[in-house]
Structures are given as structure tokens and as C-alpha cells.
Design goal:
By secondary structure, this protein is of the alpha+beta class. It has a single domain, classed as Aminoglycoside 3'-phosphotransferase, Chain: A, domain 2 (Alpha-Beta Complex). It is 41% helix and 14% strand. The strands form three sheets. A four-stranded mixed beta sheet has the order 2-8-7-5. It has a three-stranded antiparallel beta sheet with strand order 1-4-3, covered by helices on one side. Strand 3 and strand 4 form a beta hairpin. The longest helix is centred in the C-terminal third of the chain and has 18 residues. InterPro entries: Aminoglycoside_PTrfase (IPR002575), Kinase-like_dom_sf (IPR011009). It comes from Mycena metata. This is Aminoglycoside phosphotransferase domain-containing protein.
């Protein structure tokens, strides 16, 4: 059970802009009176000695990582998986109309722009530049799909944008004390193609006992990625990204560091 008046999130390896995304999405989603989900209320960002802190209200309850525990045989329950998928479906359908003006203005976040982040860009964020709006997003991704020879018919970029949490890990979702689902950590969130959430979940490092029930529930709620999309991105885009794209230099640097450290022992 979370206690106390405020929680403090330390930026650590996150850019301040990531905390700004978090806060902007919290402010937007807290306008909801949904019976399905809760979001912490952000109080502000504090900068101190090179560190940034996002101060927010606590949500009472337990994270899903605590609920499923460390027992490798304990999967995410069907009930929890279904409730999480129902929250994502509600946000995607935007029944309350919170997102329409942003989507119609071609915005990617409540701040309008988006810094590419998330598991689709694993093992490193593609931080080449800010992406200004949904038209710029199509340009940004199309260039990468062209270089990796991704079939745009299998991986469409011109669909109507929907809310993407993008960070559906067990540490980022809660069962609140009032039985609602708590949503945490929005630095990977933006308004993007409907297939993005499911593929981001597919690329998550979370264990299968979390991923499989949640993917099944999302499929039942009509949020599975189209046929062929996962293989297309796995076999072409991710392969290119790691071998030739923005992640290449980072991985090479990490490998060189590991080799040099091993030689120094």
C-alpha cells in the first residue's frame, strides 16, 4: 500500500523532457471521471544539482509487479489482464473526448512534439531529433521503414492516431485500493498508430507470465497488431535498427567498454 502525501520520481537517466511528458499526460488524464482508471496528480518538476524530480500524489494500492510477485509460475490473472486491456480500450476510444482537439491539431503529445522513446526503439532511444507533429511522425518513421525495407502496407502509418501508453510493464500499472487500474509513467506515451501499443508490449522486456495474458486480453478487446506486422518489424526494422541504424554505435560502444573492462581485470 502506498503511503504519504507525495511520491518523488528521480529523473536519473531520463531527460527532463521525459518528466515534462509525464506531467502533461497526468494533467490531461486527470480530467477524466472514468470508473476504470486513476492517474497520479502531478505537483511539479524540481531541478536540483543536475537532477530533476517529478513530485506527484501517491496512488494507494499495489503495482502489478507486486501482485504477480517473483514466483516465476505466477502469471498475470485473467481479471487483471482484462481490466488493463479495458482501460487501454477506453483511452483508445476516447469516450470522454479529451484527446480530440489534440489529435485534430496533429499533436503527438499534450506538449505537441514527441521525443522518440520506447521499446520499439530498443535497445536505445532514437533521439536524433524532436518529432513535431503527426505529419512529421509519418516522415520520421517512413524514412526508417524505407531504409529497413519495411512493407508500409503491413505496417501502416497513415491511420487515425490513438492514445498510446507505450509502457505497459508490471511496474507501470497498479490495482488501486478502490479496485481501479492505476496508470504510471507516461514518458513513452504519445498519440500514434493503433498497432503501436501492442507491438510495444511485444518488445517489452517483461516476463512471458505478464506479456502473454495481457496480449491475449488486448486481442480480445480488438487491440492486437494486424497479421504480419510483428514479423515485419522484428525481421526488418529491429534488425536494421540494431545492425545499421541509430542503435549500432551505442551497442558498439557498450561492447567495446565490456571488452576493455575484461582486459583490465
Amino acid at each position: 500500500m502506498a503511503t504519504g502525501s507525495f511520491a518523488v520520481k528521480i529523473a536519473m537517466n531520463l531527460a527532463r523532457s521525459s518528466l515534462e511528458y509525464d506531467m502533461a499526460f497526468m494533467e490531461l488524464l486527470n480530467r477524466s471521471t472514468s470508473e476504470r482508471y486513476r492517474v497520479p496528480k502531478a505537483c511539479g518538476i524540481i531541478d536540483d544539482g543536475g537532477w530533476s524530480y517529478l513530485v506527484m500524489d501517491c496512488l494507494e494500492g499495489q503495482t502489478m509487479s507486486k501482485i504477480i510477485g517473483s514466483d516465476e509460475k505466477q502469471p498475470l490473472s485473467d481479471e487483471d489482464a482484462n481490466d488493463i486491456a479495458a482501460v487501454y480500450q477506453e483511452l483508445r476510444n476516447d469516450h470522454h473526448g479529451f484527446f480530440q482537439s489534440l489529435i485534430q491539431s496533429r499533436s503527438l503529445t499534450p506538449l505537441r512534439h514527441w521525443w522518440p522513446q520506447g521499446y520499439i526503439f530498443f535497445p536505445d532511444f532514437d533521439g536524433e531529433r524532436l518529432v513535431d507533429d503527426s505529419d512529421d511522425f509519418a516522415t520520421f518513421m517512413s524514412a526508417r521503414f524505407t531504409m529497413s525495407k519495411v512493407d508500409s502496407n503491413l505496417v501502416p502509418l497513415n491511420e487515425t492516431s490513438v492514445f498510446i501508453h507505450g509502457n505497459a510493464g508490471p511496474d507501470n500499472l497498479m490495482r488501486c485500493s478502490d479496485d481501479k487500474i492505476g496508470l504510471l509513467h507516461f514518458h513513452m506515451s504519445f498519440f500514434g498508430p493503433p498497432w503501436w501499443e501492442f507491438y510495444a508490449l511485444h518488445g517489452s522486456p517483461a516476463p512471458d507470465r505478464w506479456l502473454m495474458p495481457l496480449k491475449k486480453a488486448m486481442a480480445l478487446h480488438g487491440m492486437a497488431a494486424p497479421d504480419g506486422l510483428i514479423g515485419e518489424l522484428d525481421e526488418k526494422f529491429i534488425f536494421w535498427f540494431v545492425r545499421f541504424g541509430p542503435a549500432f554505435g551505442v551497442l558498439q560502444g557498450k561492447e567495446r567498454f565490456i571488452r576493455e573492462k575484461a582486459r583490465s581485470r
